[in-house]
Q: What sequence folds into this?
């Protein structure tokens, strides 16, 4: 645990308490145990902004990017990734709605160009597109799980080193990296707990909503204002389980046709154990 007399700057006292409680709950809960032939199903519902610029102007809307990853009991075996076709889910003006419909009508996606749109992808160790599953910024999954520091101060320093030069600021990038790593759904409890405690050391992290609703679930939202953008990035934690519900980015000021308070990007993760995969 973090030393109370640490002179490192950190999150607000309220946010630090939420994160340390999440760490304690995570350690108390058991990781799912998979029998041979079973899979850990990581179901991600996601929405991101889509922009198209034409001679008529700039058009923006929100589109889905949902997918399911099936992770075998032996993670060195074949993972399966089903990516669902992206669809517009929210518009802010009629001009953008018409542009999205026009674009959808014209798109013809050959199966050989984007096979994930047609059928699940398969790859040993989850190395889709022949690339490693990365966590903590730029660390291969197995290496990171085995060797990342469990001491929160050392872990935050490790993340800063791995993400050096990335993002708007080191602290913002560390916060995003922690949320993205937790979102993978395959991080063991001891490392999840360390990540929560590391997040408690990041200056500028605050509790922004204790009843944050995301994809039908409610949790505590911890936020951090972005540098140079009028938005706030958030991670939402289920206080009962210590699990990450998801992430979102909230617009703090009107931006063109998008009003302040809009979640311009969000992901929600549900983890379960299943007996089969596509």
A:
């Amino acid at each position: 645990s973090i030393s109370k007399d640490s002179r490192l700057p950190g999150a607000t006292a309220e946010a630090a308490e939420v994160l340390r409680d999440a760490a304690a709950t995570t350690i108390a809960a058991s990781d799912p145990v998979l029998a041979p032939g079973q899979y850990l199903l990581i179901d991600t519902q996601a929405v991101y902004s889509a922009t198209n610029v034409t001679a008529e102007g700039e058009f923006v809307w929100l589109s889905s990017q949902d997918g399911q990853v099936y992770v075998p009991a032996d993670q060195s075996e074949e993972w399966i990734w089903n990516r669902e076709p992206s669809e517009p889910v929210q518009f802010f003006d009629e001009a953008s709605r018409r542009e999205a419909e026009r674009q959808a009508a014209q798109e013809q996606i050959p199966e050989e160009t984007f096979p994930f749109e047609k059928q699940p992808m398969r790859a040993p160790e989850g190395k889709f597109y022949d690339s490693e599953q990365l966590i903590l910024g730029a660390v291969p999954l197995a290496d990171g799980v085995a060797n990342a520091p469990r001491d929160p101060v050392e872990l935050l320093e490790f993340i800063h080193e791995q993400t050096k030069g990335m993002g708007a600021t080191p602290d913002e990038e560390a916060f995003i990296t922690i949320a993205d790593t937790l979102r993978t759904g395959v991080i063991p409890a001891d490392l999840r707990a360390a990540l929560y405690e590391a997040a408690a050391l990041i200056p500028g992290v605050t509790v922004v909503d204790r009843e944050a609703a995301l994809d039908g679930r409610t949790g505590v939202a911890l936020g951090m204002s972005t540098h140079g953008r009028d938005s706030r990035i958030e991670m939402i934690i289920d206080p009962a389980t210590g699990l990450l519900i998801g992430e979102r980015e909230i617009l703090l000021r009107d931006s063109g046709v998008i009003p302040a308070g809009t979640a311009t990007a969000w992901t929600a993760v549900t983890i379960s154990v299943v007996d089969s995969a596509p």
Summary: The longest helix spans residues 13-28. The two ends are 41 Å apart (CA to CA).
